[in-house]
Amino acid sequence: MAEARVAVSEPKLAAGQMQEGRDTLQDAVRAWRKSLVRRFFATRNSIYNGLWPTHIYNLMVTTGLVTLLLFWHPTWAGGFTSRLWHLAEVLNIGDSIPYTIRVPLVAIAFGLIFFILLLYLRRYALRALLSYKGWMYQPPRTQSWTTLAWGLLVKIVSGYKPSTYSCQAALPRMPVPPLRRTLDQLIDSLTPLYGQDSGQVRDFKRQAAEFEKSIGYKLQRVLQLKSWWAPNYVTDWWEKYVYLMSRSPLPINSNYYILDHSYFKPTSNPVARAGYIVHHLLRVKRMLDREQIEPLLIRSTIPVCMSQYERAFSTTRVPGEDIDELVHYPSSKSKHIIVLSSGHYYKVDVYDSDGAVLSARVLEDLFQWIVDDSKQHEISQSESRLAALTALERTKWAKIRRQHFLESEASANKDFLATLESAINVVSFCSDPVSDDFSERGKMGLHGNGNNIWFDKNANLIFYPSGRFAVHCEHSWADAPVFAHLIEFVYTAEAANPDKIYDSVGRCLPDPAAQKPIRQPERLVWRCSESLANEIDDAYQFSLKNNADLDLVVRDFNEYGKGVIKCFKVSPDAYVQMVLHLAYYRMHGKFALTYESSMTRLFLCGRTETVRSLTQSACDFVLAMCAKECDSGLRIRLLRRAADEHQTSYRNAMAGLGCDRHLFALYVIGRGLGYESEFLKSTLTLPWILSTSQQPQQQLADTPSCDLPEFRDCVSPGGGFGPVADQGYGVSYMLAGDFRIFFHVSSKRSAADTDSTRFMDHIYQALRDVKALFDGHSTAA
Questions:
Q1: Which Gene3D superfamilies match (predicted)?
Q2: Is residue 215 scored above 80 in pLDDT?
Q3: Catalytic one among 475, 485, 646, 744?
Q4: N or C: which end of the chain has fewer CB within 10 A?
């Protein structure tokens, strides 16, 4: 059993490579200087964001012009200057003040008033302009003059070079959709699943009518009141009740993974790869802390909400017996990472004495020492499996955490947990052999080996012995595109300049200007009682059982991509959705309630909305594809009609006109007011047999195109997640440029009717069959 102490061993590094962090005057001066730098950036960003979309230059220019007019006295501005002197009288700037001082004071007073009016005029004008969503329904090349004029106004009113969070104050709030529209949309989505004349649909229609007449409008009015004062009428409830109150284990059920480059691998040395990845990701974190990452813009004009980025690092989901809590640590209290190697946990400070990020080569050396050192310390099997506790059902993990870590007589356990949870992120060196097969890489990224992922942390960087790596992300703090955007900075830099990062033997190139680490890594040791060891062993077996039940298949479809699909005059996303419906129907002989995730970040604090992609038009297309006597022309027309309907539904969801988040918010209000609605409960608990998501690709504006021959193998296959329903599939896909599509299909082996490999085969065949429709046919038909 481990002793209640922190063991610190001397690293086997060259003499003078470490700096001891002694409490000297020099250290105090450095700490004071770093504090000033942090406060400077925080203050500057607060002022900049508070003034956006105006700029302090507007005040300076206005004041300067007014001062010039008052000294110059041009005849054409006589009326204006007389009003300014009247303003001086109102502000009690009298004749007793010398003229040379009185003029600047009047100019400054007018400039301030004008600046404040301009600030709020531009901000509210921009918010009103961004409330218009008609642009989404017009392709960029066929936009109306009205939409073009609107876009020009947005650019004129918008500020110059916004920082990461500058646009937040100008984003509109998400509107509450009309109740009747939401109910009609719900019934329309269920009709193709059950049939127009089925008893289920008649029951849903009756329940919907009763709900609308009884408590529906009362709940709607309460929800509208909330939408007027809350940043977003549903996001806080979505985070609380869907994520944090869920008692299911995080791996497979909630968290997700992101893979590194598909085929390109810059080095086979996992320690060197970790050194660079961690170094560059910390540089991205610094950019985020200083708000130097520009907000994402759609069509280079429309900003999206960036609020989720605030918790991208140094965040932990703390388990609770009834509800979890998201805890975010400020940068001043989170300057270290945790490295997990051979069951041992190490604390590594990642900044030097000047507050700069340690170089990639220095980090590589630290990681190599940790890997070597971890093999020299004996550890029990139970101790090496500690991370398995985070894979438990949340209430059980919360009780174990309280009993053995917070209330334990061993104070080291509490200190250990505090150090781990306040880390920027976790770096894990996987000792299990993992091949370059996408599916094998994905499985290790999604659930690990049972003891090498701390599932509560915002992100775990998992490095495989081959030099590959994956990111495992906790889901409640943000949606997948957020961390995918941040990690894209790293992927792009690594793919663009590998020769400037790694030497000929795969090690990180040294940086002559790099400073030494402040202190040596700390090996964290905690007390493992017999009862805690039993809990850990049980958790490990529970984790292995769940991992073995996951059936994950990841493949690269490289016969064609969205370049060909666009030639068919079909939305690539809608095309893939129709393919999924066709594949599922061919395999199972029935249709499935289908969920596709859409973002609502065009609104303040928006997260996601559901696109119900199974429509009657989609069913008609699938049935036509399965009919023996049906010509290709009719099938193509049905495909395009279904794709157009799907695209409209997707745009409606982005515009805040989906039905699922609205129904969910009504249900929460009803429960809060003491109402029980069987209609809401039954519709919200229908299982999503097909849970799907298209992954964003190339969110950075200046990323080299992955269609260039030299970068085609560098694109990431994206990531995936587990099935939402036990009897269903989780499908994520990435349209990676014009030439390939990556698919991630997950299901549970314990389910009687699912098989990820067979379903993937059906997807491939459906892709070939749908493309064959257009072979020999004019795409303009």
A1: Chloramphenicol acetyltransferase-like domain, Choline/Carnitine o-acyltransferase, domain 2
A2: yes
A3: 475
A4: C
